[in-house]
Hints:
Two copies of one chain form a homodimer. Chain A is an alpha+beta fold. Chain A has two domains: about 1-15 and about 110-160, Ferric-uptake regulator, C-terminal dimerisarion domain (Dna Ligase, domain 1, 2-Layer Sandwich), CATH 3.30.1490; about 15-105, Winged helix-like DNA-binding domain superfamily/Winged helix DNA-binding domain (Arc Repressor Mutant, subunit A). Helix content of chain A is about 40%, strand content about 25%. Chain A is built from six helices and eight strands; from the N terminus they run ββααβααββββαβα. Chain A has helices at about 25-30, 35-45, 55-65, 70-85, 125-140, 155-160, and strands spanning about 5-10, 15, 55, 85-90, 100-105, 110-115, 120-125, 140-155. In chain A, a hairpin with a 5-residue loop joins strand 6 and strand 7. In chain A, helix 3 (about 55-65) crosses helix 4. The radius of gyration of chain A is 17 Å and the shape is globular. Chain A starts with 5 loop residues before the first strand and ends with a helix. In chain A, about 30% of the residues are buried. The interface of A and B includes residues 148, 149 and 153 of A. Chain A binds a DNA duplex through helix 2 and helix 4.
Amino acid sequence: MSGTPLHRVSTGERINVNAASGHLQRELKARRIRLTRQRRVVLQVMESAAHHMDANEILDLAQKIDSKITRVTVYRTLDLLKGHGLIDELDLLHLRGHRHYYESHGPRDHIHVACIQCGKVREFESDLYEELKRQISRDCAIEITVTRTEVGGLCAECRAKA
Amino acid sequence: MSGTPLHRVSTGERINVNAASGHLQRELKARRIRLTRQRRVVLQVMESAAHHMDANEILDLAQKIDSKITRVTVYRTLDLLKGHGLIDELDLLHLRGHRHYYESHGPRDHIHVACIQCGKVREFESDLYEELKRQISRDCAIEITVTRTEVGGLCAECRAKA
DNA sequence: ATAGATGCAAATATTTTGCCGCCAG
DNA sequence: CTGGCGGCAAAATATTTGCATCTAT
Lengths: 162, 162
């Protein structure tokens, strides 16, 4: 895993430096997982994501690249990636209904901080978070493979308006 | 809010000291929210919960108390409680499918630590977590109203078996 | 060649909504 | 009394599965 950083902006949009680097494709290849035409397309969509996407958005984008891709394949590919720990599944505190969002993750975990009013999502990294995970791992005697932290509240902007 | 502690055991079962104390009912009354027969039953189920429940389990338990309660009422009541911040909604990392789990929460947030193998869920409290939230609040200029942290991994027991 | 992937359609699962009669306050 | 609530049925959403066919390796 390269130490390539993930750049974040306050709108929740993401500029993934790994974009188009074929990072996910390399990971699958290393695991000897069959790379089909359809999978390549979904991987490309995930890698070039500008924000968290739900299955429907991923399907739409994938079909722009290759119109023959079906929803079922998207679900199956997301399951595959999730199973190998290459993407995370979030629900952003259900602020926008009960759909699920997916993102390919960089080398370091981040926290999702969402405004319950305007819906903006910001990604946040913290050494304290890393320390907390170490504490959990030690105290619960668990070998952590996946973590997810979502925080909701009122952002400064929305508080000013109120 | 009382400072009544929440006792935790490693199986993810909960012994909520607030159980049967009518805690939720008092909260609703204070907000001048109509207390119907059905709502009382759902509140009772939530308060005496021994573990995280999905909507279906809540319905089953509620119907044991009053067989005339419908699924729709359960959903509407859960929405009501969620909207007032009296219960939390989790998905436990989708370890058991895509359902949602609900729990009435005590005065202090806790982290859910789940084994991806055996499915046991343990609740974990930590000062470090409180500190992390303060950091997020400060650095993101957000007034936090809800947080959720879920951690998955292999518990000691499952690692021993492998 | 062949294990494993895809596509199609249908099945599941979960949650939400419209409408009307009923009840808590 | 009356506005909010619950029940029913149906809709909307989201995800999964069986099976025949195709394809990456």
